[in-house]
Task: structure prediction
Amino acid sequence: MIVARAQAATGQLFATAEAFAGRSWLLVALGLLCGAGAVVATGPEARLAATAAALTLCLLAMLLTVLARTGQQRDRADLGRIAALVQDDATPCFTTDADGQIVYLNAAAEQRFGAGDGRTLAGALSDHFANPASVLYRLQSRAANGGSAREDVVTRRGHTRLSVHRVDGSRFLWRLEEMLERAGPGRGAEALSLPMLVANKAGVVLFMNEAMRRLLGGRVRRLDRIFTAAEVATGEETVVTTADGPVRAIVAEIEGPGERREIYLLPLPARQGVRPPAGAGTEFGDLPVALLKLAPDGAILGATLAARELLHVPEGSVMHLPDLVEGLGRSVADWIGDVFAERIPGGSEMLRARYGDPDSHLKITLRRIVDQGRPLVLAVLTDATELKTLEAQFAQSQKMQAIGQFAGGIAHDFNNLLTAISGHCDLLLLRHDRDGPEYADLVQIHQNANRAAALVGQLLAFSRKQTLKPERIDLHDVLAELTHLLNRLVGERVTLELRHAPQVGPIRADKRQLEQVIMNLVVNARDAMPSGGTIRIETEQLRLSEELRRDRAVVPPGDYALISVRDSGCGIPPERLTKIFEPFYTTKRPGEGTGLGLSTAYGIVKQSGGFIFVDSVVGEGSRFQMYFPINAAAPEPAETALPEPRRTAPRGAGGVVLLVEDEAPVRAFASRALRLRGYTVIEAENAEEALRTLDDPSVDVDIFVTDVVMPGMDGPSWVRRALEDRPNVKVVFVSGYAEDSFADAQGRIPNSVFLPKPFSLNELAATVQDQLH
Result:
């Protein structure tokens, strides 16, 4: 390494000397000028300095000339040694300078590429391989740093091993070893009757034999002008573009040296007529698995019997899979084409069959295969109808649950608003006489607030978060009491028939809510018969010996009371049956219904532990069935009849009330209402403020009136803490949520009652008075 660096430095020195030797006359001229200056100089010091400068410049010019001649002699000697070494070499050799100019070439190089005559090596090799300038620059840079470099490059005749050695700092020796392939031109490839070509990795055709040129009708420069497919694979059938049109051929590819591709073709005879579907009448068609063989455009080339049955394809017919399925979200043909071209690895998709059952779904898995040299797409079909149905049922359940949670939350907020509206309306009504001009307007506000409260109650019923008061009831008595009201509801053109089976056991439900359910069903039946008809209400007791599975519900075995409401109306289309229990879904015209009747009935029945189902035939009518478990427990002891709550309380009732409510409008109304009834009211915005108030032992409180859900500590939590020091204080919980949402917490608090929002002035005053007395 040290010797090489020394040689390089010496070479650089001689090269520099040669460069300056051509301009040594300038140094001599400067020396003569300095000599003339010494002659004309007057002072001895100036004369001496000029003389010294003239002598120095002349000596420097002589030294450069000597070094230049020495370097030239050295170069001639080096070239002589190189010439003696490679002159008789059968491999072409070149010597170039740093700029790539050919300085010397041996006999083999001169015979192969012609005389140098000032040409560059890149120019000499321009017809030998593609882009020689970049290859030579890359190799020369590596040789300048490491002393030598070598690389194999693909040429038109095979491939060449190109090597370079650095002779000195500015000279490079190049050697080209051409290695012709046995299959190359002149070595047997031209004699082959099998079409053959050689291409590089970029798709440029380097060589093709006579058989290939005859097949294509001439020489072609790129592979994409020959094959219609983007990629060709060994052993597969492909289509070749020829002068006479497309030709089918089997491809065989061999990886050659230097990243070359040797491609051989075996042409196939043209098909006679239309090719019958593959697999028809063969073992493939009899496989007990749903399989399809598909062409790149989706044409069905073969199908098993199971696949034809799933797709409802007649045997022997030629069809396309994209015409038989849908629901992918993009073209099914594009999906098949991507799998065929290996742009995607395949995979599975859930699609819907166009023919047969409208709810029939198929899971289709695609994979690229090669069948007797022909690339195809294999499709595996699985009946996914049941899976898709379960998925839809789960999605519906999740949606209904989300709607229920939303309904419960929005009902709480509306109850707070309605409490404030109706409460302040009550306060205004107390200050107006019935004959006053504003009294009728206030009554209208109060009535519409009550209607809004009823609508919110329906939302809570659907979400199964309303407050129920279940009791053991007899269906015969309930229906007997409802008969007169129901006859008024259905009108004169509709006949109401009631058939009550004997000995139907009692059920446990909220009587008022059950009556609401039956009324909603009867009203819907009446609206389904605009021209009149008959509505039948039937009850019976039945025993299920095994569980009943229907409409995503499972009815466990046991004794049930069955209530049926049947009409002879227009019926419900099948596509609407799954949606009729959803809130706000209605088939009536705007203004004729809110879409909450059936959803309310559904929520009440489910919250009561029952089940509701519907059957309908378009043009014949509908039947709603409700299953309620028979309550066989012993009758509950009769409770002591309580006096009817007083709707007004006398002034001066007395007592101290701690009112805890985070909604300011509700707190303002409740505070004024209680003060009007003679109570002393202490207000608190939240539980923490209430507890701070009770820290003062001088504060005497008779009853807590508190909201349940508040920011920070909730109502039951702070009440339990307060009752530790004041165990005799009575409690009234108020909330816009249902009572059962915190029933467990309330049950552990003694002397507590629940008052649902929205409540009126009289209801609040009566509840507080009943607790205190």
Q: What stands out?
A: Residues 385-430 form the longest helix (46 residues). The chain has a mean pLDDT of 76. DSSP finds 20 helices and 30 strands in the chain. The first strand starts at residue 93 and ends at 97.
